[in-house]
Task: structure prediction
Amino acid sequence: MLEKAFPNPGFYGWKIVLLGFLACALSSPGQTFVISLYLEPLMEMLGLERVAISSVYAVATLLAALTLPLVGYLADKVSSRLFFVIVFAGMGLALLGLPFVTGVLTLGLAIYILRMLGQGSIAIGSIRTTALWFDQHRGRAIAIVGLGFAFGELVFPGIVQGLIRWLGWRESLLFFAVLYLVLVAPLISLPMRDPPASTAEEKPAGSPRETTEATAAIPIIMSVPFWILVIGVSLVPFALTALIFHQVALVESYGWRVELIPAIFAAFALLRIGSSYASGLLFERLPSMWNITLSGVFVALACGTVVLPLPAMVMALAYGSLLGVAAGISTAGNAILWPERYGVAVLGRLQGTVNAVRNGSTAAAPLAAAWLASATESFLAIPLGIAIAALLAGVLPFIVWRMDRVRLARLAGVPT
Result:
């Protein structure tokens, strides 16, 4: 069974998968679920209201998203080892400075660095390096790497809360800073390496093919199919952020008890983990752009459960489970889509652009959902609007498929 799941177990690429998994898990200090645990003491220390610190966080997140195309360019230009040294050392320095911020600007700078490195850069570097090592089994390899994010969500909140109670919030940040600078940066980066020329999917630097493909990022990014797919893969993170940000008000509007929220998250996490790996296997056989349609269908089904005449616990578990499946399909499919469709020579630059839009959509989601609820005077309008958007997004792969067929027919001189 292990040989079927991990063919050729002596292949060094599987070590890269493990390192990528750990790197994604260790991105947690740059994720919302960890940073949010420090908001209360930071507000008290700086004398900020919740609206003020939320605004700082939103602006820093948006600026971090806009920086990711440059991060992707860097990932294409430097070795994987150097890239991860820079990223984890940068996270360590940001964690070191966070307890000593003196105002809105320094707080925004610290959060900006954590969000840029933790939320975006680690995903770009991990997926790009994994894609370089794998071809036939790329789907499952990238899916396993992506599970590191779910693992981080599972273990980091408890670790952080325990350290805050034991050491204090400032001391816990200093502990993580030292950990990342002294241990994490070298332990992740030193074994990390790009494949040799005989194994890599791209030619050695300087060859005609490498030079040609390295300049192909701009025409790809300027193409209509690329942006159609970018919009499609941004739907699930947008929907999840909108639903999670307003979850208390939404659960109450569904007629459920707020105490059901932990059960929803448990079902969400378990199904997300299972569907991520299953999707990796699936997209080794099917075009990965169909993740947009499949995840959109599951988002719509999840939103539809809130109106079913069933016991609240059953509906809540179904709601969380279906959202988890959508998240798993979307996470794996988005990671596999870009190297599958465009190759790996400019993958970092493409990922940087895609992640900038995806992360930017999460910054806009809470406001868009609040506006929809206010305009209709009903929180039920949020899942209804998201369901409609998800089904419309599910049509986008068919548009790209048709455009591809027309383009190939024209190249072959066949009338369309």
